[in-house]
Amino acid sequence: MNVYEDASKITQEAVDNAIKSASAVTKGFQQIAAETNDFTKRSYEQQAEMLEKLFKIKTLDKGIELQTDYAKIAYQSWVSQATRMGEIYADIAKQAYKPFEQTAMNATDAGSRTAKLAAQPVEKKAAA
Q1: How confident is the model over 85-99, as pLDDT tens digits?
Q2: Angle at the Cα of 66 from the Cα atoms of 60 and 68, rounded to 5 degrees
């Protein structure tokens, strides 16, 4: 292949990979939206449950104990969700980059071949 065919092939691969990458990012953001929606639902349900229990309590010490327990559970849920979201974002980044790995290697190979071809006439002149 010549330089122009290499450039055309690399450009087409880059466009195809950009589409694949955008698709991976879109799917990832859909997953983030679903996870956020689920977490929000669970949080509201936990809050409603805690308020129901709080209204039934007769003593102050039981109320403080209930609120302390709720705070621990809410914090653990939040940490768990933050960890999960971090994993999803990392996976999105990996999936978005994956299509470009092969294109980068192909571009490097094409550049090396072009450099060798460009250097050959200079070597022949130097030898003569």
Answers
A1: 999 999 999 998 888
A2: 105
Residue type, 125: K
Instruction: Give the C-alpha separation, 21 to 27, whole Å.
Output: 10
Token pair in block for residue 8: 């055309």
Amino acid sitting at position 28: G
Amino acid at 12: Q
What is the reported pTM?
A: 0.68
pLDDT band at 117 (very low <50, low <70, confident <90, very high): confident
Q: Measure Cα distances from 18 to 22, 25, 91, 101, 111 in Å.
A: 6, 10, 17, 12, 21
**CB of 53 closer than 8 Å to CB of 66:** yes
Do residues 31 and 88 make contact, with C-beta atoms less than 8 angstroms apart? yes
Measured from the Cβ of residue 99, the count of other Cβ atoms closer than 10 Å reads: 19
